[in-house]
Amino acid sequence: MIDTFIATLNPMVTMFLFVFIGFLVSKCNVAPKNTGIVLSKVENYIFMPAQVFVTFMTYCTVESLTANYRFTLFSILCIAISLLMGYPLSCLLCRDGKNRGIYRYALVFANYGYLGNSVVPQILGQEYLYPYLLFTLPINLTAYLWGMGQMMPAGAKKSNPLKRLLNPVIIGMLAGAVVGLTGIGKFLPFFVEETLNDLSACMGPVAMILTGFIIGGYDWKELLQDKKVYVMTFLRLTVLPAVLVAVVYFLGGDHRVLTMVLIAFGAALGMNTVIFTAAYGGDTKPGASMAMISHVGAVITVPLMYALLTQLTGG
């Protein structure tokens, strides 16, 4: 169990160090103030689409879709349970209704994308990134169709949720699936494939530096003062993933599925509660506070829960 904990701790500490680097860059004014906006666009328009395109191009075949469909089914179940838990818990945490949508989003979604996509290959192996992306596909769809609307303040003009699905990550996934299913990827020039691989490798480090940079734009002492955030973080990192892992375990999920559930729903909170809330003029401080505290806590909770999970399943 100790060996498993240490092995999982290493990638989590690595990710946290990237967050800390971004935090220092922000606090020391090494980069201009709009760096967070630039990095966010580079992540969403280049690095992450490249990663999902390469993964689907490499692993997406009729056989692999047939073999891995259960990951998507378990994901749909987990999302449904998360939504059922998120509504009453957000009402308890925000009795006055202020920022309730932000808390609701945070209770349903962890950093399944940037952090999850980086950690899964390091824990399970690169070949498991494709099943993990299939697992997170329903989560992605729910986040764009329902989640984004939760972070818009009252009175904000809400965009068509279907239009939000036409984003670079989903397009990259679909394009990679087409290339993988048709087999035309083998005709890509070597330099194109190498470029895509190098862009894909940038996704994790840049995403974590971006997280640290955005957090660094706030007074970190103020971010530590909201007591509700600690309750929220405890639920996000321990209670919610434990419930979901238990349900999937009793339904016959194997070690790989349980690991994906743990990482997708037990990771730290991502920056969507800051980035999308800011885009509509909402209060960004709760999201920044959750992101900072949960990223520190996840360094311990994810390796510890994964070690317990491995002990339980013998994985």
Summary of the model, kept short:
With 315 residues, the chain is mainly α. It is built from 14 helices and no strands.
Give a description of the structure:
With 315 residues, the chain is an all-alpha fold. It has helices at 2-27, 35-59, 62-93, 100-108, 114-123, 129-150, 161-164, 168-182, 190-215, 220-223, 227-250, 255-266, 272-279, 285-313. It has 14 helices and no strands. The longest helix has 32 residues, at 62-93. The termini are close together. The model has no long low-confidence stretch (mean pLDDT 88).
Key phrases:
315 residues, mainly alpha
Helix count, DSSP H or I runs of 4 or more residues: 14
Please describe the biggest sheet, giving its number of strands, its sense, and whether it closes into a barrel: none
- Overall, the morphology is globular
**Beta-strand percentage range:** under 5%
Using only C-alpha atoms, the radius of gyration works out to: 19 Å
Nearest-integer average pLDDT? 88
SSE string, helices as H and strands as E: HHHHHHHHHHHHHH
Output the structural class. Answer: mainly alpha
As residue ranges, the low-confidence spans are: none
Number of strands: 0
State the helical fraction.
Answer: over 70%
* Cα-to-Cα separation, first versus last residue: 11 Å
Write the layout of secondary structure elements.
Blueprint lengths: L1 H26 L7 H25 L2 H32 L6 H9 L5 H10 L5 H22 L10 H4 L3 H15 L7 H26 L4 H4 L3 H24 L4 H12 L5 H8 L5 H29 L2
Helix pairs in contact: 1-5, 1-9, 1-14, 2-8, 2-9, 3-4, 3-6, 3-11, 4-6, 4-11, 5-9, 9-14, 11-12, 11-14, 12-14, 13-14
